[in-house]
Each structure stands twice: as structure tokens, then as C-alpha cells.
Amino acid sequence: MHKVIINGRETVAKNGVKLSDLLISEGFSAEHPCGGKGVCKKCNVLVNGKSELSCQYVINEDITVEFSQNDGVFCETGVKEHGTRSENLCLVLDLGTTTLALALISLDTAKTVKVVTADNPQRRFGADIMTRIDYCTKNSVFPVQRVLIERINELIAQLNAEGTDKMFVSGNVTMLHLLFGVDPSSIGAAPYTPTFLESKTEKGENLGLTGIKTVVCLPSVSSFVGADIVAGLNLLGMPDGDKFNLLIDLGTNAEVVLYSKEKALCTAAAAGPCFEGANISSGMSAVSGAVYSFKDGKPLTVSGASPKGICGTGLVDAMAHLIKTGKIDETGLMEEGLFSVAEAVTLTQGDVRQFQLAKSAVYSAVLCLINQMGITFGDIDKMFISGGFSAKLDIENAALTGLLPNELKNKCEAVSNSSLKGTIKFATEQNDLSRYLKIAQYVDLSADPLFTDLFTQNMLF
Predict the structure, then answer these.
(1) Would you state the pLDDT for residue 72?
(2) Tens digit of each residue's pLDDT (9 = 90 or more) over 272-323
(3) What Å distances lie between residue 101 and 94, 406, 422, CA to CA?
(4) 3-state secondary structure the chain
(5) How confident is the model at residue 272, as a pLDDT?
């Protein structure tokens, strides 16, 4: 056994244990965005004064470990608080891959009393759902579930909501599996079959939740179009007449829905790790010090702190700046090879390529759904943008980079956290969600030959 001192706290570890595994087991919020593969280079810690990747460092002696833990992720829900408690209350939880949002709702007034947010502590197992699924496959779902339950209990305590009868939950399918302690391994490999898609009910005490009698999750559409999208549709409702609307959820996973009163085509695009910073060299979530805006060459950071990295909205702005100033050409080639966003925050040629992959995936997904629906941009009445950073996203810059359709930028509306809002609507109105499930059809982009062609074309700026 070896003595290990982590940020001043002493513990012990067996010989040969990975430092990242020890940090996880000891409850430290050290993040491992790539799931311990050693490729993101973002789990740097100081071991006896020397910089090491915690996911690659094997303990074979007494060591002292030091690292800084991030502040909470900035999360704008767009939900108005009214502050008046009543006798009849419930909780509503948006279970995001990166952030959690918990709302206390007065059922007597159908209004929100208060909302609290926090980062999802499962980020220590990986930034995206696939890395978390991989961890569960190799280990167990229960450590991943446990840290989530602990964080939810903290939020419940902040709201002084112990003893609340019901908690309604939305989130993607994998996150709901992790909440209920259901092994998500089957979602991680073909044919990507979840254990459940339907609404699920469980006693709060069985999950380890403090003072919550019953937990009810909303139903999902498919393995990669979850209850968060169903909640979003519930919030927005169906368009009038023969019109079509487009919903793009830009969270850690990008989900797209094209829908009318009669039909809804849904799909998922592999874009999230880029916008959450996992595969961007200076990328990070929207925590203190993250560059969230870059206009006229001037960076603005979360909390006004010294720049530490760049988050999704800042990345979109920076890419638009590179295009406007000619620092990258239409192929994405950066002649200088490096661009300084702020002191200690840079973008590399590799970062540009990662952005191109992400923005092409989203835009190509939109085009595929439009093609399969047999309509044009002119048939779309509104484009709704939801998700973690929709409220701060510069639509002009997003369209300029090719992330969003230029043809729809004047029809665009940011709706912030449509998952939380739509679940609140369900909790207060108990409206019928089956109508969305009946018309929803999942589109597998990997089976659509048009997607491959579009994906290559839309890599260009």
C-alpha cells in the first residue's frame, strides 16, 4: 500500500492502481473528458511537483497530488422564478449530460418557486455518454449512479424540498438509465438497444434520494432521442396548419427534430464533445474563466475571470472571426497554424478540423431530415435552438460558420432549457405526451447515403 496525499487529504492506494481511478473512488471532481483514453490531455495533475495525466499515471510509490477543481458550470435555464411556496409541491429535474437543473414547482399556482443548477458529477467518468457507457461496461453502473444521486440530494437540500411527493425527470436515454441504476451497455454497441424507452416510475428511497417519494421519468423516442426531446416538443407544441418547425438541441449531444402536426422526424448528430470542449485543445465547459464570447477580437469570460479556456459559444464566435478576417480559408486551412483567442487560450489547426466535423454533422442532419420530409427551407416556419448554450449563441456567427442554416437565421428563436421547461409543463398540466410519440420517427443517419455526401460537402466554410 502507498500513502497518497490529494490536495491535503491523506488516503492509501494499492500498488498499480491508476491515479484517475483513485480520484474517482475518493470523490474528487477531477474530470476525464475522454474517459481515460489519454487523448484529451485534460486531466493534468501535479504528482510530487511534476505534471502528469491522472488517467495514465500508475501509483507505485508514496505521492502527493495537487490539482485545481473547477467551479460549477454556468447554466441558464430561462425559467422564471416566482418564489412563493405552497402546500402542493413537486420537483422537476433536467438530467443533462453536462449540467443538472432542479426546479421546485407549486402545483397550486403552476409556477416555479426556485431553480438550482449544478454540474453533472458523472463528468469524471467521461464528457459524453459513450465514454460513460464504456466505463459502465468495464466496471459497473453503480459508481456512476451513486455520484449522480449524491449531487441531486445536494440540490434537493438547497431547495429545502425534502418530503416532496413527486420528482419528474427528463434527459437523454443513457442519462435516465444511469439515474435508475440500469446498465446502459446495450446502448453503446450495435444494435444500440436500450433497456427501456417508456415512462418509468420508482420509489425515491430505492434510488437513494432524500425524502422523495416517487420519481417519474418522461418517455423517450429511441436510443438517441430521449425524454429531453419529448419534453421540448411538449413545451413548443405543434405548428399550425401545414407548417413545419425545426428543433435543434445543442447540448453535449446534438439532437434534431423536424415536425408538423402529422409527422416528426428525429435524429442525433455526433457534435457535443466539440461544443463541450472535450476535443478542443483549450476547450472547456462554461465554468469560471471560459471564453463565452469573442466579438471584434475581444474575449469575454464567464464570471469575468481570467481566461482559462474556451466554451461552445466562444468557439463559434472565434471560428466566425477566423472566417471574417481570412485567417482560415474555405477548406479550414489555417496558414499560421495557431490563433490566440486570449492569453493562454489558443486554437490550433486540429481544433478547426474538430469544429468542422461537429458543425457539418449538425447541418447535414438538418438537410437529411428536410430531404426525407420532402420539403424545403421555405416550408419551415420556425427554428428553435435549445440546450446548454443556446441563450448565449450568436445566431449570425453560427450561420456564418455553417453550424445553422443561413436560410433560417431570421426564423430562429432560442428557448434555453426546453427539456426543463417542457417537463415543468407536463408536471403542472399532466398533458398527453403520447401524441408526440405516435408521430415521432427516428432517422438513422448512418443508413442514409445522402448524409455521407452532405457531411463531406458541409465540412467547408
Answers:
(1) 64
(2) 678 877 789 999 888 889 999 999 889 999 989 999 999 999 999 999 999 9
(3) 5, 31, 13
(4) CEEEEECCEEEEECCCCEHHHHHHHCCCCCCCCCCCCCCCCCCEEEECCEEEECCCCECCCCEEEECCCCCCCCCCCCCCCCCCCCCCEEEEEEECCCEEEEEEEECCCCEEEEEEEEECHHHHHCCCHHHHHHHHHHCCCHHHHHHHHHHHHHHHHHCCCCCCCEEEEEECHHHHHHHCCCCCHHHCCCCCCCCCCCCEEEEHHHHCCCCCCEEEECCCCECCECHHHHHHHHHHCCCCCCCEEEEEEECCCEEEEEECCCCEEEEEECCHHHHCCCCCCCECCCCCCEEEEEECCEEEEHHHCCCCEECHHHHHHHHHHHHHCCCECCCCCECCCEEEEECCEEEEHHHHHHHHHHHHHHHHHHHHHHHHHCCCHHHEEEEEEECCCHHHCCHHHHHHHCCCCHHHHHHEEEEECHHHHHHHHHHHHCCCCHHHHHHEEECCHHHCHHHHHHHHHCCCC
(5) 63
Residues of the chain with pLDDT under 50: none
pLDDT of residue 35: 66
- Residue pair 398/377 in contact (Cβ under 8 Å)? The answer is no
Predicted TM-score of the model (pTM): 0.90
Q: What's residue 70's pLDDT?
A: 64
Task: Let me know: does 176 contact 142? Beta carbons within 8 Å.
Answer: no
Q: Tens digits of per-residue pLDDT, 48-68? A: 878 888 888 888 888 888 877
